[in-house]
Write a structure and sequence with these properties.
Blueprint (H helix, E strand, L loop, with lengths): L15 H15 L7 E2 H13 L5 E8 L2 H8 L2 H13 L5 E6 L2 E7 L3 H17 L6 E8 L7 H18 L5
Parallel strand pairs: 1-3
Antiparallel strand pairs: 2-4, 2-5, 3-4
Helix pairs in contact: 4-5
């Protein structure tokens, strides 16, 4: 008694709209809406990935715009957007750029040395001067290894201290 296949049924479901919706939700969860750079949640996850990959050099740069409140009254959000664009333009492709809130940004640089980070900071400051933004940024960097057993908050705190020292040298207040 041989059985023969006399037909095949196929069902196709287009999930394109659902997938686009999921991608949009994911983007919203990890991206700053105003500047279109990542947010704190994303940079913290990326930092954890650096630890997992056992990166020998991990650098975090923290930046804060000087006299932002006064400039913000005049230029509004344009300054934040433009600063995010400058960071995106200058930092290497492997960098994770995030707006942490207000006028504070962070950059995660896997595999980047302290000297390289200092050079990148100088490029950011030069670009701001070139664009004549009417505002400057104070930046601080901290570099260490996954072996330091420090987390993002530790890297942030040390880089933030260096950023504040940079701001103090210019006579700025936080």
């Amino acid at each position: 008694n041989r059985q023969k296949v006399i037909g095949v049924s196929c069902f196709v479901l287009d999930v394109t709209e659902q997938r686009l919706h999921e991608l949009e939700i994911q983007r919203m969860a990890y991206e700053d809406v105003l500047t279109r750079v990542h947010n704190r949640r994303y940079i913290e996850l990326a930092f954890e990935e650096c630890l997992t990959r056992k990166e020998e050099q991990i650098t975090v740069i923290i930046s804060d715009l000087d006299k932002f409140k006064k400039a913000n009254d005049t230029f509004g959000d344009k300054i934040l957007i433009e600063f995010g664009d400058i960071l995106t333009k200058i930092m290497p492709e492997s960098a994770v750029i995030a707006r942490l809130g207000g006028d504070e940004f962070a950059v995660l640089l896997p595999g980047v040395s302290e000297n390289q980070a200092e050079f990148l900071i100088k490029l950011v400051q030069a670009e701001m001067t070139l664009k004549d933004m009417g505002i400057t940024a104070s930046l601080g960097a901290y570099t260490n290894s996954y072996q330091s057993h420090k987390n993002f908050v530790d890297f942030f705190a040390i880089a933030d201290k260096k950023m504040y020292e940079n701001k103090s040298q210019k006579g700025e207040r936080r």
